[in-house]
Amino acid sequence: MKIFLSKIVILISLLGILPAFAEKHVPTAEELIQLETIGGISVSPDGKYVLYQKSRNDFDKDLNLSQLWLYDISSENHIQLTYGEKSVGGFGWAQNSERIIFARDSKVMVMHRSGGEARSLDIKQKNVSGMIFSDDGKTVSFVGSPEEDKVKDRRKDHMGDFEVIKADGGHRHIYIVKLTDDLELDGDVTAVTSGTDFSVSGYDMSADGSQVVFTATKRPDLASSFSVKLYFANTDGSDLKILDDSEKLKRSPVFSPDDKTIAYSISSGFAYNGIIHTISADGGEPKAITESFDESISPAAWTDEGIYFTASQKTNRHIFLLNPKSSEIKRVVTSDDLIVGRQSTSKSGKVIAFAAANDEQLSEIYVQNGGAAKKITTQSDQLSDFIMAKREVISWQADDGATIEGVLTTPVDFDLSNKYPLFVITHGGPTGTDRPVIPTGMYPIDNWAGQGAVILQTNYRGSAGYGEAFRRLNWRNLGMGPATDIISGINSLVGKGFIDEAKIGCLGWSQGGHISAMLATYSDRCSVAHMGAGISNWATYYYNTDITPFTVQYFGDTPIDDPEVYAKTSPMTYIKNAKTPVLIQHGEKDNRVPIANAYELRQALTDMNVENHMIVYKGMPHGPRRPKTLRAVLTHLDAWFGHYLFGSPKPEFATVGIPEEEDEEEDVDG
Question: By C-alpha distance, which of 439, 311, 310, 300 is closest to 363?
């Protein structure tokens, strides 16, 4: 009977009566930005559970929606803990592994590990983050901004709304609250720190909830980020003291398991290595313990096993364990096939959970407990219907002899005898790193490869993962050095014979947008370009950005004292060479790279009769945060490069991507 039925099914299928099985297809840009992704990870202190986030773009609500999940390591069960229309932000565990705390919709929520209704704590502070439980689960610390200043309210009522730059508050401080057994507030919120003398940037609380160690800047703005001090205090606000007031970048302080010692990272600047130091909680001289490790690092956790940290190693990223006494460092996740992202450990340090991706899978969560790492999620199943591209790491020699690596993405049917359009995508940072993983960010790389293009991502000089000396090759050369590295990479590919030289598109965001603008003015190697939230003039950037120490770190001076170095590395200096059409995309509310840079390049290109288009995204900061804005950015990018590299019609940006209006059905009586 079964054989007979199977023959009927085959016959009907051949006749076309049953629908054919879905064939694999090249993913669209829309499909790629709708992939669900893994967010934060937190192992319970007892090592029995893993909390993690799943996130997806919700276009109806126009937000990236994150929910909290719990994985039981012994039963291998996944349980969704939160639901609804609000995203979960930061989260963590009580040291007894019974209580969970998380942020949602500007509120601090607590719940039992077993689930049930989450309780909202009646906390008046704003922008709450960094919640930490004490060992007994009854004390919670967090960082937040004070309640709205009543003086500001009276000022606004009398004189309207205004802001006094660098003097209008916004300082962040540490607070603690006590909880009852029923997860209710037990008394008032207590301020551990207060005032306007400093603003907390990072902290840790001792296991018993009696002490805090924290880093702080003089003001809450990023312009103060270079001068960071390390402080210590009791959680009742007493015994406040400075442990380290050196003029260095400091971050990620953590207590030792016995709360007697503190580990933290010290760096001489943005392009220098971050070196882990230890210092007694009673004070004294900090001791460097990772000077031999040639990459920028900071402690993630100090467990009974030692200090865990992650670090880039060329295009890969691994988890390491540091012995704070001997300074011995060893890799603890040993697979070279996995590129590690976020990670978390149990209190003992014996259980590790981490997210990792590679060239064949999305970021998945793994758990390692003494043996080989075990994958516990199946996010990559979302790719089952897609034809994905191929990725490999390549290298070439720059003009000065430096070895530069990059990621080359090619179509699945790549043929060396054919000629392909080339996308040259440049990362930002400038200390970012491009890796051979399936991207889930801004650029639809697998869609472009599926349409028949080759994509080059360049880890130009200054990129992380190649040591401090390589990052310092950007010194007084920010923009010019990376641009020539990329040109040498393009020339290397062209020399292999499979690139259509008339179809080379250069694009990037932030520092990557700046370098793309350099390529479009300093050089004519690109046939079409894109500047996303990029710098067109370093002097304009310096005077407008919220992180002014950045350029002084890389150039050694301000544009007043050394205008030549600012000019040498600015696209505006070479504007008379410009011939390349440029699409400019920028956020209206961008404080990191203020929009003046975009207007300056747009007007200069217009004066030079070079084709350009500028699109301003309302309310957007330094990058797209909302799904609809991301959709708009990608739609405009795709239409721009689609015309120049794939031969599609020239886009009308005012109307491109808008769905056709549906005809309303006529109401007929009957």
Answer: 439
Number of other residues whose CB lies within 10 A of the CB of residue 619: 10
- Nearest C-alpha neighbor of 410 from the set 465, 454, 365, 370: 454
Q: Which domains does the chain have, with CATH numbers?
A: 85-151+167-380 (2.140.10.30), 387-646 (3.40.50.1820)
CA distance 397 to 488: 7
Neighbours of 55 (CB within 10 A): 18
Q: In 3D, which of 134, 146, 38, 36 has the Cα closest to residue 92? A: 134
Q: Give the tens place of pLDDT for each residue, 235-290.
A: 998 999 999 999 889 999 999 999 999 999 999 988 999 999 999 999 999 999 99
What burial class does residue 107 get, using C-beta atoms within 10 Å of its C-beta: 0-12 exposed, 13-18 middle, 19+ buried? middle
pLDDT digits 0-9 by tens, 437-447: 999 888 999 99
Cβ-contact 464, 430 below 8 angstroms: no
Q: Closest Cα partner for 474 from 435, 428, 434?
A: 428
Tokens of 82: 């939160």
| Side chain identity, residue 249 | L
Predicted TM-score of the model (pTM): 0.92
Distances (CA, A) of 119 to 122, 132, 136, 190, 384: 9, 16, 18, 19, 39
Instruction: Note the Cα 552 to chain centre separation in Å.
Output: 24
The amino acid occupying position 4 is F
Judge whether 356 and 394 are in contact, CB under 8 Å: no
